[in-house]
Amino acid sequence: MTDKATDTTRMDTDTARPELDRTFSVAPMMDWTTRDFRAFARTLSHQALLYTEMVTTGAILHGTPRERFLGFDEVEHPLALQLGGSDPVELAECAVIAEAWGFDEVNLNVGCPSDRVQNNLIGACLMAHPEKVAAGVRAMRDAVSIPVTVKCRIGIDDQDEDADLTRFIAQVADAGCEVFIVHARKAWLQGLSPKENRDIPPLNYPRVHRLKQSRPELHIGINGGIKSLEACRSQLQHVDSVMVGREAYQNPWLLAGVDEALFGTPGPASSRHAAARAFRPYIARRLEEGAKLNHITRHLLGLFQGQPGGRRFRRHLSENGHLDGACLRVFDDALSLVPEREPESVA
Asked: Is Transmembrane helix among the key words of this record (predicted)?
């Protein structure tokens, strides 16, 4: 069997890959969209496109073991790797590694406002350097057969949301990028923290809608402040896809309605309890591998949001999941604190 931790060999490019359906995706979120959350998300939706946390090129090329940054369970497909970086050679090398590991897409982060990544020319600061983004995209596209996409903002700081965004998209599209997921907020790199940048800059959905109208040949997805399936349906009248972030994590039951509402296919979970039970074998396997129970179950704390017993469920896992030797019994006991209901629908 090939060791994924060292293999960078290109897979057979003659093998046809199914085209990704990006209608709905869960945004890459640091410390949240880990492999454990993504595996849990698959108990709720088969169709949603999932993204890793942002992984920097330096971590992939120099970090060990590589499994720590790139490991995933096969159930997570379709799965995209989000890269942070700006050096074309390093981006191309990491894209080759991602393809060899079996990721379905490589996405370049041009939206993170953290000052820690700005210093390495990573994230939203790259919106001021469309030529660097274009060079990175071109290098990755030349190196791999899987899709190379970009997630960006509508602008940064004092950039003009029309002229500068139009220029950025044009230059990167000319390098071969056909898919852009646009966070419909500016990022203020001077004066706002990363947390404030998620809420304070006003949302400007019409700007993203106009981008789609002006570039109909491109796939334009929208991200930012979307909190319901009804809002997703509304956005899909204007753009090609929607990406949901915090709401999908904090209220994961939202994902249970995605397959039927947006793809017209039945979802895997008939109830919250059914989703939790479906995740149980995965928890057992991860515990056998040496993972801590609370590192896994922290991603389920929002499953029973607003439900009778939900608070007791969260408290039991929070108070006991971190203890030495915490095992499946802790999870089972927490689940027993929530009255089981009839199969639920998701609006």
From this structure: no
CA distance 303 to 250: 8
- Confidence (pLDDT) at 194: 84
- Strand-pair category, 219-223 with 179-187: parallel
Q: Domains for the chain: give ranges and CATH numbers.
A: 24-263 (3.20.20.70), 272-336 (1.20.120.1460)
Start-to-end C-alpha separation, the chain: 44
Contact 341, 271 (CB under 8 A): yes
Ranges of the chain whose pLDDT falls below 70: 1-18, 116, 118-119, 342-347
CA distances to 11, 147, 340 from 137, rounded to whole Å, are 20, 10, 49
Q: Is 157 left (phi over 0), alpha (psi -120 to 50) or beta?
A: left
Instruction: Report d(CA 17, CA 35) in Å as an integer.
Output: 22
Which residue type is seen at 125? C
From the annotation, which residues make up the binding site?
Answer: 28-30, 82, 151, 183, 223-225, 245-246
Structure tokens at 34: 């880990």
| pTM summary value | 0.92
Q: What is the CA 24 to chain-centroid distance, rounded? A: 11
Element (H, E) at 51: strand 49-56
Residue-level pLDDT at 10: 38
Catalytic residues: 112
Identify the pLDDT of residue 341: 78
Annotated binding residues for FMN, as ranges?
28-30, 82, 151, 183, 223-225, 245-246
Give the type of residue at 276.
Answer: A
Helix (H, G, I), strand (E, B) or coil at 34: coil
